[in-house]
Amino acid sequence: MAKSSPSTHPPLAERLRPQTLGEVIGQQHLLGEGMPLRIAFESGQPHSCILWGPPGTGKTTIARLMADAFDAQFITISAVLGGVKDIREAVEQAQVAQGIMGSEGRRTIVFVDEVHRFNKSQQDAFLPHVESGLFTFIGATTENPSFEVNSALLSRAAVYVLQPLAEEDLKQIVAKAQAIDAVPPIEASAIDRLVAYADGDARRLLNTLETLAVAASSEKLAEVTDVWLLRVLGERMRRYDKGGEQFYDTISALHKSVRGSDPDASLYWFVRMLDGGADPRYMARRLVRMASEDIGLADPRALRLALDAAETYERLGTPEGELALAQCVLYLAVAPKSNAAYTAFNEAKALVKKDGTRPVPMHLRNAPTKLMKDLDYGKDYRYAHSEEGGFAAGENYFPEGMAAPQFYRPVERGLEIRIADKLRELKRLNGQQDR
User: Fold this and answer.
1) 111 pairs with which residues across the strands?
2) Which residues are within 8 A (CB) of 384 and not within 5 positions of it... i.e. 6 or more apart?
3) Same domain for 149 and 209?
4) Percent of the chain with pLDDT over 70
5) Tens digit of pLDDT for each residue in 235-291?
6) Angle at 233 between CA 230 and CA 234, to 5 degrees
7) End-to-end CA distance of the chain, in Å?
8) Do 45 and 110 sit in the same domain of this protein?
9) For the chain, how many structural domains are there in total?
10) Domain range spanning residue 213?
11) Residues 137, 33 share a domain
């Protein structure tokens, strides 16, 4: 008895895969009229490129359509499972297709999925063949190619950034699935929940639709309702890579919202981090950093509150301790902002790095022994507490011959308003002493 072909019942994602450029949903910033990838398709000449974007945004589909558009042999390599042997085999197939080994000449596109998983030597193996034009290289990655792809390979490939699919795009996909009777009718509120669950990932949406279709059929449902859907899906699991770029993009959004003094946006990104699985201890460390970098002496209480919040979380754990961190986020967002301490620290580091090691002036040196005192260590040092107002006006605390830099420039916000006033008064007193 003949065995059924594996393609007899292809997955829904495969049945709905676009066959032409016009059927692609989303990515119109690349595929619309006059846009970069559309121009590349219409040029008649394929070029090596890297498709960078989240899962389920159409990277593989675009690569396949490019092969179809140029009538090219399409060779797929998974960087997760493959290695140098697969690269070597791809080269041989491309040589056969080009006619080097007696076959009819034909273009070849080598598509490497998750190209960031290949190490440097594996990525380098593509270079001579891309250079010679033996094949067109297309890499797909969910990670920033600036960090994950060799610069030599990156310089030979255009980078196209794919975006998560918008809600309307995902709703179009649901409609296409319904049009081929792949899923039962779905009420509007359930579609909204499905779209939110997919979180911009078309593959995730299609796989979920397929699962729901099987479950609905077994229960003989006439319509997928929101209540039933919620029961089947359970707690929503969001796409969130704790070690990848999305993680760092989200913490960046939190930091910038705090710096921008928007408590609601700050709380939103903070909760997004927690919801996505970020370690609250990591969050606590970042809050301490924000208190120093973006608030500093404009409100010194911010640093203490951030440390208290971190300690509270250590004592209470999740979920109770998360409230203290949330409270800290709100305080940091509404606190007066100053990066004067952060800027001063960086400027001081830069100067010391390039300036060299200047000797400590004699009057500032420590003199714990008689010999050191005999050598004039500490001689003529003015003890500030014995001076009028506790300030030794006109005293110099920098190395001899060094122009006094001004690293710290307080801003006119929060406590630094008063600090600036104090520094202006001390500068006035220094000026009087100079006269």
Assistant:
1) 76, 138
2) 390, 391, 392, 395
3) no
4) 93
5) 554 444 555 567 788 899 999 999 999 999 999 999 998 887 788 999 999 999 999
6) 80
7) 109
8) yes
9) 4
10) 167-233
11) yes
